Amino acid sequence: MPKRNLLLLCLFTVVCVLAWTARDRGVHGRHFGEVLAAIERSYLEPVDPNALFDAAMEGVFSKLDEHSAFLDGDARQDLDAALDQEFGGVGLELSTDERAGTLVVQSPILNSPAWRAGIVANDRILSIDGVSTRGLKFAEAVTALRGPPGTPVTITVNDPDRVVTLDREIVRTESVLGDRRRTNGSWDWFVEGEPGIAFIRITGFGDHTLEDLDRATAEISGEPGLCGVVLDLRGNPGGLLSVAVEVCDRLLDEGVIVSTRGRGAAGDRQDSPLDIRRATVGTRFPGVPVVVLVDGLTASAGEIVAACLQDNRRAVVVGSRSFGKGTVQSILPLSDGKSLLKLTTSEYLRPSSVNIQRRAGDAEWGVAPEAKHEIDPSAKTLEAVKAWRASRDAVLPPDTTARSTAAAPEEAQSAAALPRQVDPVLARALEVLAK
Question: Which helix (H) or strand (E) element contains residue 53?
Fold first, then answer.
């Protein structure tokens, strides 16, 4: 047979296979449409078609892993805000007072509309646009405060007579934090009471993390007498894989950072080649010892960084075993422009090739601290550390003499306590660096 005819035959075969595949998928789509139409047309009670679709998506994704999901509405906005590190709003970090049933300001965000209006930590938000916050779900309150830039929102603060109208703006959030705020809102990057020990907290890996980290490392490197660095990844749920890889690269001069593997051509990930990410020449803090802090909420990209630094012997890990999430999710926008798929498309392995994903029966998963450095504080201690840290993170108002009357004296006293006295995990890290 002439080569030309053979080529045409092969091409025709491929087209037929693709057409059959598309037909099969089209059948499923038509069946799904027929089912929805039949329910809408004949079911005894009226049913919201959007509710039916959401239920169908829940059923589909229940067959996948816990990290894959169909996201729209508020769920998509929350994901976008976390990764973009910015949102349209007034710039308030909030919590809920369960006993009083009201919203409490943890801190305004620096340079935000709320900060410029003089709202401070421990202020209570009594109403939003005339709607009482008592009993209001936290997610509903956040949704009410967020919105397109330039739109107004009115809040009542502390008492019914203090009504403040704010214009929403694009507010940028931080993911790289230090030990405590200075009065101008900037970070002091050195552990209070511990000369020469720098402290960097990364709370997530988003679009601005590298920029913020580079600024922090530049400030730290410019200070004389640097003798140790604590990298705190506790509570870090992850974020962008590419950003985690770059964070590792900034702290390594050579070596494997992470390996990822997707689904192979035959549909089995074991057949897929590894995509190995390696460090490039050049590092921050050369010769300076590093300790990484992890806990059970350190996950995904946070585990990549901790495992990378541990396996390359660049850092000692202190704390408790991490969460154990060793998969990567791709974000796939859908044609409506309003919803997306968060779909697990690959897994990653630490440089030692040991699995990070926690699976039933596995003896090793996640990132475990080195021997003698595993510390699992009690719930009471964790609550105390959280409250103490929040008081040190709070942004002061533009006029630092205008302090909130809601601030309790014992909270101010707690904020003054030295890190070694309050945080046992950080205290162990300081002991490691002192050796």
Answer: helix 49-62
Contact indicator for 426, 197 with CB cutoff of 8 Å:
no
Pairing of strands 163-167, 152-157: antiparallel
Where on the phi/psi map is residue 261: left (φ > 0), alpha (ψ -120 to 50), or beta?
A: beta
* DSSP state at residue 205: B
Q: How far apart are CA 245 and CA 169, in angstroms?
A: 31
Query: Which residues have a Cβ under 8 Å from the Cβ of 178 and sit 6 or more positions away?
Result: 187, 188, 189, 190, 199, 200, 201, 216
Q: Tell me how far apart the alpha carbons of residues 68 and 330 are, in angstroms, rounded to a whole number.
A: 9
DSSP 270: G
pLDDT digits (tens, 9 = 90+) for 354-374: 889 988 777 788 999 998 999
More confident residue, 146 or 410: 146
379 token code pair: 């719930």
CA distance 171 to 93: 11
**Structure token digits, residue 78:** 């929350």
Q: Amino acid identity of 106?
A: Q
Q: How far apart are CA 373 and CA 292, in angstroms?
A: 11
Better pLDDT: 267 or 64 = 64
Spell out the residues 6+ positions from residue 376 whose beta carbon is closer than 8 angstroms to its own. 320
Check if the beta carbon of residue 367 is closer than 8 Å to that of residue 310.
yes
pLDDT tens, 85-135?
889 999 999 988 877 778 999 999 999 999 999 999 999 999 999 999 988
Tokens encoding 162: 């203090």
Give the confidence band of 269 by pLDDT, cuts at 50, 70, 90: low
| Mean pLDDT estimate for the chain | 86
| Position 265 pLDDT exceeds 60 | no
Among residues 239, 249, 241, the alpha carbon closest in space to that of 217 is found at 249
Distance from C-alpha of 137 to C-alpha of 132, rounded to nearest angstrom: 11
| 347 token code pair | 């897994």
Active-site residues: which are they? 300, 311, 325
Sign of the CA dihedral with 240 first, then 246, 250, and 252 last: positive
Distance (Å) of CA 34 to CA 28, 70, 90, 373: 10, 22, 45, 59
